[in-house]
Amino acid sequence: MDHSVETTLILNGMRVSRWIEPRVHLTDFLREEMGLTGSRVGCEHGACGACTVRVEGKIVRGCLMLAVQANGKRVDTIEGLSDSGELAQLQQAFHERNALQCGFCTPGMLLAAQDLITQKPDAGREDIRAHLSGNYCRCTGYQAIVDAVEAVLAARRIRGRA
Amino acid sequence: MKAPSFAYAKPSTLAEVYDLLERHGDEAKLLAGGQSLIATLNLRLSSPELLIDITGLHGLSGIKAEKGVLRIGALTTHSEVEHSPVIAVHLPLLAQAVPHIAHAAIRNAGTFGGSVALADPASEYPACCLALDAQLVIAGRKGERRVAARDFFKGLYDTDLKPGEVLVAGEFKLAAGYRSSFLEIARRHGDYAIIGLAAHGKVAAGKFSDLRLAFLGAGGKPVLAKAAAAAIEDKAYGPDSVAAVQAALAGDLDPPADLYSSSATKLHLARVLTGRALAALAA
């Protein structure tokens, strides 16, 4: 039976309207309907963090939110945040330190890391580990990721003092 | 996996929620933050006909301290509790507990009311509500009623909520001279607790009184360790009094084994946490 609900959201700054089946979670909507495949479908029950997106400026699990719940909300994905340049410093640091191999977890890692950087500029390694604890990486062993985030935090602190 | 098909409604008043609940009965489920519900739908552990999204209701969100009572609206997110200056001052137990709930992205969506109403025995808020002797505010067609946390949690995912009712808030009486400590052991950060403890009690002139030790992950519902607390009533902190509390825990707790920890291990860990919590309260 068709239960579709008309849903309008601001996706990466653009207004989008679609009729969506309530059973479709936000990540599937982004990938299948909008072609934005940077948000991954991993565990689909909130454990792995690969689906992390921003809703109303806050990071959430795309797989634990129905697309229809995004009605009237601002949704930002890795695509929009890459294009805007907001993540450029983190992306550069990940690249320089090989903080990824397959790249599956990277969009979620970047969004979670950027969330910490904006909320807690004085974060240390333990804070980084705690904040990224909901994002699994099966390639790197995390050290390089924590190094990259730490480097960005340090660079911003130096720049802030200059 | 993908969720089965269901209909979706987002009412803007409680009256509409009651209508929908009456019409659909057990086939309808309330959706708040969805951090447990949508996972169970994706895993096809649940297949309701209708989800009633209550996040459009007004007045169910926010934290307010008034006339000696602190009220947390059901739709208040874990992040809002975590970063609330009011909670930090008046209910430090909750401020300590929230960082143990899953991860930042989940805390941004999950709600106080959702967690309490689900009543997962390994979750943090139910044990905190029990330790703080909270009142849970339940709304229904006939009006509001209040139920003490000790009567609200009935068993595994089982609460005093009746068909057609909605949990709208938790209320906490504020009292001077009390201290709190929340401790939890999990295999990884954000995992389900192996065992956890919400401890709250009065410490005056070096002596404990009215201590409440509520354990999570220790049974089908949060467990209040009454014999253990009684063992240190009106006594000072010291090796003997702590040992007496730890010994008495055997009479209060019979924690079920899980995949990784036997019942005996959990009881041991409960004693370890109790020792740490008493030290923190006495410090």
What is the CATH class designation of the largest domain in chain B? Alpha Beta
Low-pLDDT windows of residues of chain B: none
Biggest sheet overview of chain A? 5 strands, mixed
- Largest protein-protein interface: A-B, 33 and 32 residues
**Helix tally of chain B?**
12
Order of helices and strands of chain B: EHEHEEEHHHHHHEEHEEEEEEEHHH
Number of domains of chain B: 3
Fraction in helix of chain A: 25-40%
Radius of gyration of chain B: 19 Å
* Percent in strands of chain A: 15-25%
**Main beta-sheet annotation of chain B:** 5 strands, antiparallel
Terminal Cα separation of chain A, in Å?
A: 61 Å
Characterize the quaternary organization of these chains: heterodimer
Overall structural class of chain A, as computed from helix and strand content, comes to alpha+beta
The CATH architecture assignment of the largest domain in chain A turns out to be Roll
User: Radius of gyration of chain A from the CA trace?
Assistant: 16 Å
Uncertain runs of chain A are: none
Defining key terms:
heterodimer, A: 162 residues, alpha+beta, Ubiquitin-like (UB roll), DNA polymerase, domain 1, 2 domains, five-stranded mixed β-sheet, 6 helices, 15% strand, B: 283 residues, Uridine Diphospho-n-acetylenolpyruvylglucosamine Reductase, domain 2, Uridine Diphospho-n-acetylenolpyruvylglucosamine Reductase, domain 3, Enolase-like, domain 1, 3 domains, five-stranded antiparallel β-sheet, four-stranded antiparallel β-sheet, 12 helices, 14 strands, 34% helix, globular
